[in-house]
């Protein structure tokens, strides 16, 4: 990571690029999917996934509380951890809404 990530869009682009580079995938051919993570109806992070050819699945998890991104390769092994130096802005409202009971 060259410059500190400040916005949600910058984080999503960085995660997408990092995951695709791990398996030499073309990012324009394999979109990034996101899903909010909730704990006791409270937003606590986001799961990122890229689905490649031959059932390859690459993933990352951003934890809101600690502001850390964990990256996982196609075997499910963590290959990188990034501590973000500052809180993100522009997190989509749909992620921050609680779960329905």
From TrEMBL:
Domain of life: Bacteria
Name of protein: Uncharacterized protein
Lineage: Bacteria, Pseudomonadati, Planctomycetota, Planctomycetia, Planctomycetales
């Amino acid at each position: 990571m060259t410059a500190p990530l400040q916005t949600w869009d910058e984080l999503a682009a960085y995660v997408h690029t990092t995951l695709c580079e791990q398996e030499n995938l073309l990012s324009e051919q394999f979109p990034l999917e996101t899903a909010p993570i909730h704990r006791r109806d409270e937003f606590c992070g986001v799961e990122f996934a890229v689905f490649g050819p031959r059932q390859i699945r690459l993933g990352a998890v951003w934890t809101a509380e600690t502001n850390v991104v964990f990256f996982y390769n196609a075997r499910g092994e963590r290959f990188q951890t990034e501590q973000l130096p500052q809180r993100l802005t522009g997190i989509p409202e749909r992620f921050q809404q609680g779960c329905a009971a």
